[in-house]
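Reviewer comment 2.1 asked that we show a complete input and output for one of the modelled complexes. We chose the magnesium ion case, as it is the one discussed in the main text.
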Amino acid sequence: MAKICSFVSVKGGTGKTTTTVNTGLTLAREGFRVLVLDANLEGSNVSFHLGLTTHDLATVHDVLNRECEPGEAIYTHPSGLNLMLGGSRLGDLGVKADGFKDLINSVRKDFDFLIVDCSSGLGSDVKSVIDSSHEVVIVTNPELPAVVDALKIVKYCEANDYYIRGVVVNKSSNKSELLSDDIESILGRPVISEVPDDSEVRIALRERTPIVEFKPKRRSARAFKNVAFKIGGLGRLEPLTIWDRILNKFIK
Ligand SMILES: Nc1ncnc2c1ncn2[C@@H]1O[C@H](COP(=O)(O)OP(=O)(O)OP(=O)(O)O)[C@@H](O)[C@H]1O
Ligand SMILES: [Mg+2]
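Response of the prediction step:
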């Protein structure tokens, strides 16, 4: 039975999809049976990160519209990562999200982890995913508005007694508005990984290859891997060689 882990943020563009795809891929490469579910119904874009198009594939929208069975909408990427992608047709907009709970329950028996990429905000679609999850990962940027928004997720989870695994602080830099310590004290939750703002992450998206595969030794890639290692209970990442550390310091 899969452990269900949802990646959420109230503010848009914090890096939920990037974190989800890199986490899912890392867990799959570590030998787990993983399904990444694109639950961002209005702005599905997990497929972009892996160079896939959904024209010929059944999607989460088709499942929610009862046009196919959940199993028919699972695509296995050559990496071994399983995906239920979102549709990109105009007619896919406006699909009702109230079937998420049943969808998640019907697929979870076949996987070790179900990693869910949510839309931004805390609308009924996101709440229904959180309500079905074993754990929630908050993705934020080190900016006051994003962190204050993230507090709403903490409050929602507290009110319902849901487990928050922790916070991923994405796109951090030495010019960030907030340090991880500040974020921990505002949210009252641990920062499980701090991912640098790294132009290579954007280039990885351009190349349709997640950064954990595109540039596995980058600090950003290792920070994303670290999220997966925490969720998977895999202990610590193997340390980099001195040479790789020097490269990371000097190659921007
Ligand atoms: N660590 C990073 N360094 C630099 N760019 C990043 C980093 N993480 C993500 N990005 C870029 O930020 C943009 C938004 O990322 P992403 O789509 O993952 O955010 P999101 O939270 O899923 O957005 P949405 O709320 O629209 O679903 C993308 O262009 C992505 O390449
Ligand atoms: Mg997204």
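Strands lie at 3-8, 34-39, 75-76, 82-84, 113-118, 135-140, 164-172, 191-196. We note this here for comparison with the apo prediction described in Section 3.2.
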